[in-house]
Amino acid sequence: MSDLHVVIAGGGLGGLALAQGLHRAGLSVAVYEKDPGPAFRNQGYRIRINPDGITALKALLTPPTYEVFAATAGTPGSRMDTFDHQLNLLHAQELPPVPGLPGDGNLAVNRMTLRQILLSGLDKAVHYGARLTRYDVDASGSVTAHFADGTSASGDVLIGADGVNSAVREQYLPKARVVDAGLRLLYGKVPFAGDEARSLLPPELLGLWTTVVGPQRRFVGLAPVQYREPMDQVTARLAPGVGLSDDSDYLACVFGARREQFPCSDAELFAMTGAELQALTLSLVEGWHPQLIETVARQDSTSVFPVSVRTSVPVAAWETTAVTLLGDAIHVMSPAIGVGANTALRDARVLTDRLVQSAGGRPLSEALHAYEEEMLGYGFDAVRDSAARGHRLVGQDPLPAPQA
């Protein structure tokens, strides 16, 4: 084992995927997460995993754990169609299959299930209740992260994987901007435990992702999560050491609109209960197709929560040090093309490869620079593509000019 020690600030999907890859490669790694536990807050429901994400997870996870991931993922096909609010087809899209990947490269996973998979085997490496406040670098190049409870942790490299409100980015790249994209989303889910709710919508609305656009660019996104096998059977068959919570089939049902469309302030919106948010959604889709209204009415009201859509403004490359960034900490994007999580997983794969090279003798600064150069290219391409589609389809604010 190399004596390289990696400190990761943030235990989201990207940070945990990086930890999995480094742990599998025999490198020393520690993850520090501000939340008190892995299920402290709701971070969403269904996630699309595309070929980049699948390829990354296959490289980072152990083979049995990867098989658990593949077996617990839904395979809803590759259609990403757009309809109007009366369910007339506006645009048909079918993503090309990628032979050799599960689901032909298009999977729908439950976020909490994926998080539990990424936590497997990392019990000793993940530390909760550790909110990073600052870091410093000593003369030898060692980085020390300082946490709100007065503790600290040192390593050869610090990875800021601490999300859109990254404390690492704030200190490291103070001029890097994250801006409000002008959209508010109300995430919820419709239980599919029985056939009645499932039969509400025609099959063509149950593809990989369906966008329904109504008047004033209000929209509803629909995407099913349907399991092929009970969780306990999957783990018993493939990896008994992986602990997964049980879950039932559901339909992710997301309402969105520009902030001006909501008859309340942001403060009022974010103070509402799930039942109040569901009632608000129903008022904003009044007159839409009856099947859509009934679908919203069948949301589990306790599952509904609001989100402000934010996006990074692309920045130029910086001078490489022993600190770098990953995922939403550097390239947060709107969900308009559904690749945010996949881009973070790709970051984790690329950075794992570079750090393994450093452990094998490549200078650390050279390895980190190679990661940053590659990541900034595909990462901000995704930011720009997401912003462009969001602006065109649902009125997202145009992306501001890049930072110098």
Automatic annotation (TrEMBL):
<dbReference type="GO" id="GO:0071949">
    <property type="term" value="F:FAD binding"/>
</dbReference>
<dbReference type="InterPro" id="IPR002938">
    <property type="entry name" value="FAD-bd"/>
</dbReference>
<protein>
    <submittedName>
        <fullName>Monooxygenase</fullName>
    </submittedName>
</protein>
<feature type="domain" description="FAD-binding">
    <location>
        <begin position="298"/>
        <end position="379"/>
    </location>
</feature>
<dbReference type="Pfam" id="PF13450">
    <property type="entry name" value="NAD_binding_8"/>
</dbReference>
<keyword id="KW-0560">Oxidoreductase</keyword>
<keyword id="KW-0274">FAD</keyword>
<dbReference type="Pfam" id="PF01494">
    <property type="entry name" value="FAD_binding_3"/>
</dbReference>
<keyword id="KW-0285">Flavoprotein</keyword>
<dbReference type="InterPro" id="IPR036188">
    <property type="entry name" value="FAD/NAD-bd_sf"/>
</dbReference>
<dbReference type="GO" id="GO:0004497">
    <property type="term" value="F:monooxygenase activity"/>
</dbReference>
<keyword id="KW-0503">Monooxygenase</keyword>
